Structures are given as C-alpha cells and as structure tokens.
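Reviewers of the previous submission asked for a worked example of the structure-prediction workflow described in the proposal, so we include one complete record here. The input consisted solely of the amino acid sequence. No template or homolog information was supplied to the procedure at any stage.
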Amino acid sequence: QVQLVESGGGLVQAGGSLRLSCAASGRTFSNNHIGWFRQAPGKEREFVASVSYRGAYTYYADSVKGRFTISRDNAKNTVYLQMNVLKPDDTAVYYCAASDFAQQRRPEMYHGWGQGTQVTVSS
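From that input alone, the workflow returned the following structure tokens.
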C-alpha cells in the first residue's frame, strides 16, 4: 500500500494562489491514480480532483473547475494541486490518496491517505 504525505498548505487572501504537493513516502513499486479531497469543519470529506497514473486524464469537482489544476511528476513520485483564485469556501484540510481506478470521486475507492494539510482563505 502506498503511503502519501501532503504539504504546501497555508494562509492566503481571497483571490490568491497555493500549490499543494502529494508525495509518496519511500520507494513506490506500483502506479496509482491519485485524488485530492478536502474536509471543512462539520462537513463530509469531498472530492476535489484526480489524475490518472500516467497523468493523461484529469477530473475535477464542479466547484473548483477552472480554478484548480491537478498534475503529476512520476519521476518525483509527486502529485500537485495548483489552486488559483482561492475563495473562503475553499478553506479546509486537504488530503490526497491513491486508487486502483481512474476518475473516482468516492473516498471509499481510495487508500494510503496522507495526514492532510490545512488551507485557510481569508476574505
């Protein structure tokens, strides 16, 4: 099972940008599709974006489409989430995880969850 670590969160003003990273800890021996999820206080974990294991296919939640971009660099075992035009509603803990299948938006289809990184957007 792949183990993932998120980083890059922080405090940013509305309209600003952040880039999150999702890195595999240690050596990985198989390829996986990677998804980003987020969870705000008192809310369920929600799907944000996913990328296929080769990076050719991406999938986004409607709430972030046009603002966020997911990509991956397999040579570095890292997936990125570029977040632009951030809104206060984007405030949440962001998690990444791996799936055996592409274009999945259900958390139960993923494994190897990271510890999460906090993103806070002020108005």
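Residues 11 and 120 are 5 Å apart (CA to CA). We consider this example representative of the routine output the project will generate in years two and three.
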